[in-house]
Amino acid sequence: MLGRILSAGPEGTCKIRWPGRPGRRRTDRRGGGDRLRYWDDMKAGEVFELGSHTMDKERMLSFAREFDPQPFHTDEEAAKASIWGGLIASGWHTGSTLMRLFYDGFLKDAASLGSPGIDDLRWVKPVRPGDTLTGRLTIVEVTPSRSRPDRGIIRSTMELRNQRDEVVMTTSGVNFFSRRPGSR
Fold this sequence. Notes:
This protein is of the alpha+beta class. The protein has helices at residues 57-67, 71-74, 76-81, 91-105, and strands at residues 4-8, 13-17, 25-29, 47-54, 112-123, 132-144, 151-161, 167-178.
């Protein structure tokens, strides 16, 4: 468990107990006073636009050199001679970009408890320097936890589209969220 919400306060504040720190509490104010989104607030079929990010060539090269040094990610000449016909982002960089958009566009204002993982990930089209990627989250299923009444489970899909509105990446996965205090 990442943190346990102890109580909700005014204007989107809540008290969270973080494991490994007995007796220490953190007041978490999210969204500058906006209301914290709990599992109880989420509905199947809801769609959230997560924002956009433009892929920078130097950042793509830096990420690839450190984490995915295949030549079509790190060497422009080799990439031109590859089946891709030019430099492309590492899929893991693309996935990390989606994760950042997911956090900024949804998780930072939610009572998230983390995720056990994703069920599916597809890199549908290559991502190139200068591409602007836009994320979208769709909540597919909202289920209360059978064993832990203080939380619920969300199944969702996410996609990234480029500036031509082409899908470049899709994922489906599971996340855990706290229930609103007193709602159980």
